[in-house]
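Example (one chain per record):
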Amino acid sequence: QVQLVESGGGSVQAGGSLRLSCAASGFTFSSKWVAWFRQAPGKEREGVAARYTGDILAGGATYYADSVKGRFTISQDNAKNTVYLQMNSLKPDDTAMYYCAAGRPFNSLTPPGYNNWGQGTQVTVSS
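Predicted structure:
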């Protein structure tokens, strides 16, 4: 059974940092896209960061939403089947449930094509 398990969420003050982890079992990130999405109550799920875990693609293999560029960094450890999201300079607008996803998407920052999802980890940023 394929499972993705997120961890590392919590409550922080604005300007603080958190690192989220996504551990995979029954699934290998190699040659797949991995991504982080987030969703706040009453809002649509949005792509935050995505990374190709195999060979580097033409034009770059890492993509970020404009709202998090320069603040968030996605990385991977294939040996541990784990993907990370380092979040710095957090803002109250970053408050959401964060989900890890993997698959072969049509667009790296949109849900279609991501066939595996974690349960989510809550991030709360206080002003």
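Caption: The longest strand covers residues 18-25.
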